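Example (one chain per record):
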Amino acid sequence: MENLTIKNLLDTYPYSKEFFDINGLPIDSLSNTVKNYISSLPYVFLEDMGVNREGLLQRFLAFMERMEDIRKERSFSIHDITILGGRDKNGKTEEIELKINMGEILCIVGPTGSGKSRLLADIEWMAQRDTPTKRQILIDGSVPPGNWRFSIEHKLVAQLSQNMNFVMDISVKDFIKLHAQSRMIDDIENKTREIIDHANDLSGEVFDLYTPLTSLSGGQSRALMVADTAFLSTSPIVLIDEIENAGISRKKALELLVGQNKIVLIATHDPLLALMGNKRIVIKNGGIRNVIGTTSNEKKCLIRLTEIDNVLLRYREMLRNGEMLEDTEYEFPISS
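Predicted structure:
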């Protein structure tokens, strides 16, 4: 790597320019090799950086190795995960072996405090009988390599929690751009536009590229992160905790995530979301009590719930815009 000319380096690894930029290293000649370039730097310049020539070369090699690791992350993919049962809060054994394939939606239902978030955490941590529930998570039918649990390159899960606050004082555009650059995404401009278009479609409260992150509403923030996760995250699994409180179109959010061929697990109290999944996991007293496949009758119920939800969403928009609902009561679907 150090014997490449700077021109070849930049052509082959465009991200290598970041190394020169962040270290304030001027590029005067593209025909120089990296090694010769570093050797030619004045001693005083290196002294200001607090590093000698060998140290700077090692820093360059470490930077390139790390960037290659991130590039490999983009191709990280799995086919399925399997949850092997552990035990509930009373030590009762969970009789469960549940395989979840890519593109599936599973909902996790149960009373508050029953252990829904604990199950999400077990999946995120790739539990190996070493969490309070003693569950085990298999990836593609096998125990995942030990280093995956702590690896940035093999981050299995992206999580959207019910609590979300931005503290960065930058615009939406800069935020997406920074994230895309860190993921080494190509065509950042179009990707940024795609993300914000989908976020606006989810939230119904339009914001633009130059809106400050800190001024986004709760619904806009959630919508932005759903779209960002769908298009920029390489994690094959998305865990969502109580999206019903987000004030966004839940159906569109799930369609967007599943459309990117991800496994989606949702902890929810919302009947609409619970029936959108292919299956639902019932949690009680910290343990998995049952796994229920959504039946054809429940799918019919979902159609009616969706109709009602669409009316509610329409009413919400009318109220937001200062309109009256006096002549709209008849729009609620009547059961036959």
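Caption: The chain is about 40% helix and 15% strand.
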